[in-house]
Design a protein that fits this description.
single chain; 1419 residues; mainly beta; 10-stranded mixed β-sheet; 6-stranded antiparallel β-sheet; 3 helices; 75 strands; 32% strand
Length: 1419
Amino acid sequence: VCVTPPGDSGQGSAGQGADDVAVTVEASPGPKESPFNQRMKGDMTGWLSMSSSSESCISEQNRGFQYGAHDFVWGVHFKSDEQPAEVMVTDMTIDRNTGESYIVGTMQGKVTVQGKHVAMNGALDGRLSVTPSMNSYLADTVSSNAATTTLVLDTGGADIFTDGDLVGARVKLLAGTADARLYGCTGTVSSYVNQTRTLTVDSLTRTKDATCSLNTAAGTAIRIYFGMSSFIAKLGKDGRTIWLNKLDTTIAGGSAVITSIAMDPGSAKIYVAGYYGDSRPGVTVDTTLNIYSVDTTTRVSSSTTAATINLIPTDDYGQVSGATTEGNNYQEGFLISYSSLGAYEAHESIKGKAASQQLMISNLKVKTYHPTTSNIINTQILSGRVPATGPTHVTRSDVDYDRGMIAAAGTHVAGRSYSSVTLATSAAQYFPAKGQTLSGTAGSAMDNWYNGLKLTITCGKGMGQVRTIQDYDAATRTAYIQPQFESSDMTPDTTSCYMISGKPTSFVKGVHYASGGIYVAGTATSNTEDSFMCFGKMPDSYKDKADPNNVPVCAQFGNATGGEETVNFVSQYDKDLRVYWTRFIYDKAGSTSESGEIKGIAAVDDLVIVSGTFGYHASRTDEVEIAIQNCTFDTDTVVQGPPVNDRADVATIKKLCRTQVVNLVDIGLLPMQKANPQTSGDKAQTGQVTATQGYVIRNTVPADYINVSTGYTVTSSSNKQYMYVAAFDGSGACRWFHYVAGTSATNGNFMITPTALTHVTPAIGDKPLTGYWKTLWETERLYKGRGQPRDATSAKDVSSEKFDTAVIKAGYIYVAGSVKTTDDSSYADFGVTKYPLECSMGKTIGAKGADVDKLKDAQCAGKVVSSDATYTDVFLAKYATLGAPRTDMTMTTYGSGRQPEVQYIRRTGMSGTAEVATGLVVHDLTAAVYVAGTYTASATTKYQGSDDGEKTKFSATEANDGSYTVTPSLATGVNKNNGDDIFGLSAAGRVNALGCPRQRAGPASTHEEKLGLTGVPDCTMYSHASSTTTTTGFVAKFSDNGDETERGNKNRKTYPSITGTFVTGTNTKFAPCSTESHTLTGTSACSTSAKGCSCLQLVATSKTSGALNYPGDTTATANQGVNNAWSGMRIKIVSGRAAGYEGIVSYSTTSSTTSAATPETATRVDSFYTIPALSTLPDESSTFQLFPWAELNPKLHKRTCDNTDALDHGCAAYGIQWAKTVGWPVGQTLLTRNPYGGPSDVKNGDTGPWQTPKAASTSTAVALDLNLADAVTSTNFYNDYIVYLSQSSVQPYVVTAVAQVTGYTVPPDTTSGGILAISCPAIAAGCPVLTQASGHRYKLEKIKGTSTKGLPENPSVNSKVRQTSTPQVIVMQDSDVYISGTFKGFDQHPFGIEGVDETVGYKSVGDDTYETYLVKLQD
């Protein structure tokens, strides 16, 4: 349809480049699955298409477009100032009102935000930098006689570290007293011994010349990088930096780590969470966190702090009133709010409260939901039901306060007006402690608590009598009633049952529903017995009558054995950072605590959802029993007793769930059951019967937690890990949970890690999406259509499938992560999924242990295996946020309580490679899912710039005049699209899907040296480096409806049509072919099918013998039956006798024949079982059609997507529209072709930065005294370099001359980088002389290889194996996708972005120092 312009390869026969394939795509004003392309006709008689289309061709000059096929449009570099000071992103968020993005991360020195897509330079105020106020390293010197990798410190280590500290810290050697060639050598600490102050380093290396083999001289300066500061950056929609802020500490090497960020779109406030400490586990150093506001003039952090926080800070809620020194292993959490201008507003700490306490707060994550209104107490829910909280003076019925057995016989004295009776030991005796009391004592006695209520004897002696309690003595549990009992014979005794009831004056049940909130999740660890952690203070409305101080929210570790205890928590704060409640997820089994870690958090509507892990421990093998706290926050400020009682002076709000070890009784908060019962028949109690008040998390009362029961005993292991997802409402009650484990202890051998979690509430603007809607003239529902109602008040949900309940309150939850199953009998069991509907109909959604032996059942069994027993795959799971059962389609959801509906599971990945998901985001309208992550290559040959997958390579020949002739030659043994089929798109026949990178398919006669401007898309993946261990970042797009849509398998459009006829006779019969099994009957005989089983003998006529059976099949055989290629396919008799029959066929080994010896000339006749049984036999006049039984499904339960199986090939691509790598090493090609051997349009890989010469320089016209950073150990190292000389003193540095290198002398002293012998043949007077005092600069560039003329790929030692990148977070605004991640090792071939920065890129500061990128993809 389209003809592309001529490319570099010259014109083809039709004018196009020989390898530029013309592609036509259609574009509509909305996604193909959206409601925008259809509207109701004006006369209400049908649909009217409002779509428009246009054509576009992919070519070298212009890019094709398709809705959803994203292209990179800009990138930003968060640059480190020096090696090994790393800059690593931790999180980002986006203002959906403005498109402005906020990104947070850590830094170990100066960080600079820069980019080449826009004018981000200093002159235009586009480049911003901040520097921590204190170094992230400790400076020391090395003593004499140290071995190459054993560094003995002179001073500092003895006082501030203990054995085992500093492991993982980076070291860097500076100038020594003897040998400058050690300058810049770096390594990683593997051990530290305090007594001898000895650091052991894994190795010492340097970017330029690899291993630093010299021994460290005495007095060599060393830096030990182990601390971290943090940055907060705000960028505009175009990627320009608006402001840059920081957090740091008051000590060198301290840690101030922002781990998460969220924003309030209503007020534009931002909230950051993280932790801070001294970074020294074995010792204590007083540390203060510095908080800054942004200076509006400079747009970076102010020079003075806006606020500070000390470790164990004083507070105004009665826990810490003076200076308190923490213990070892102490690290606090923080939550800080800023305005949109970067101005500090408020903070709160998650801290300990006792001197010498050990506490480690980590892994903090923050999300918001309508935080602007979060300080308003709301007790109404989003429905027309009666409010959960109401004044009880309007109560029309009595309330059941308490019940039990009489503990001692009552009294009856003639002539008295009253009797007495002793209530059960469970009767109320003590109020909970006052808000300020955390010392273990309870509140006051509950005298008079039951006054005014009715005592009814419900069984035993005295049954039927009803009396009013006039007085109650809590100490003796004695109730005095009037009038007295009828007689001595009717006076209750220990055989009597009672119930206490009445009309209270309090708010009987106050449930705090979400008006909004800031939710913080994290991990807390303590080694100190009975230590506390406090989350802050409650809002001012929650204060005790007798104590006007702020109410704390503090919980306690148990540590009865003195061992390490770890718990996870979720807390709700308001906009002023006042805490409402905290709920814990913990291990309640045994004496140790192995609670795993919360991996993700999302806030939506009145729910906060977390995902986490359990079951893993590196060394222990203890029983693990995960408990999720479940109790309801009470919005009443105080307890109010029965009608005649006065207001009590304690708060009974459940800021924490109840953690007493004694039995409890009900004190009037109804109903008398769990806040959200997960099992039937549970009764909860509130109150105390002893004077002891406890706060130990592991002593949570049974009524206030839920066991995550897997059905078998889980034992911690280093090779097992399971996952859970739990949802809490705005009141802190656990609404539902879901777990993934094995079906038994013996087949639970897998590791699953949920690394990312998000949610989507489908909407257009503010209008929620609905399911189908019924038109005025229709007699049946639009089961499979989508449309937009005439009033445009709601729109079709892309996930709707026959049901008006398709979009439920709060939308959907998505979880992505990695999974590895280590044996073939172990499955990560999610339970039965709703989709595909063909197999879930009539099944219990979520039920575990489903059968995978039968084809129909296996598709929705939800049992996942990885494609490899050694490497991880990516999984994606979708849940309905509120999973009420739908009786119109399924049975009830699994479990007796409310559980989520598992919508679907996806799994993708390639055997022999490791894939990990690191982030995901979902489009609100289309429900398309974008997953970011990493993968490793299957071979060292499949990397970006390699010859693998390309057609040509180059050699360069030097002429006598010094020029070079570059000659292309066809490479042998390589093919296009030869990268790793990580996502199965090649096997699925979609290797050229739009959205994949256009980086490999080079023209026929030239080498493909650039990224993204030439050729068709290639959906096979090529890694950054020639390595099978380093990671390469990717982003993949999943459609919501499976294989592009569950209503039409578009992948199958490329599947060959298979038609044919029947052979009548012995093997076309009503009976089964033999006694073999069928794919629908599993291991059972086909004859066992309740639908019956028949036999057919088929002859394929439309398929050419020897041709491919299906996309991806390379066998070219006519023998379909032997390999079961058609088993499980649907057969339809389309004409002749028995026309209209449909069934599922399964290959039979009986009576199959081939008419010739070679497949190419054979006519194949095969026998197949078919279910259901035939009612009429076909004959020679009948014809059939074969097509897949169902839509292509992901085959979660199978390790491989077998190319010989018609239903399995390419199943890793199920639901994936496209995938692309993030980043490209600029200039990394086999051989390149400018006169110096470099690429025609990119910088050579080995190009250094502009440097100043040595300060006291001895430079001349023939000698350049190098900067210390350019010192190397070999005199031959610079033989293939040229030098750019600039006598400019300001940027941009103008090149004055280009010099050739004729020799190199190693450094003569500790301040020199060595003497470079240079010549400038074109300048008679010689090269210009450079001096540091004048601000002169030079830059080194490698121009050719040693053995061949022209630059070979990755010329420096080991450079091509170290390039790696990892996306960390992905977010979306409208349909634009933002990805931020880290990269390192791009010191010779800079990190470029496809279509954005393919010629310059972002050069790594060193070979092993992580830096950060942010890229935007636009539709």
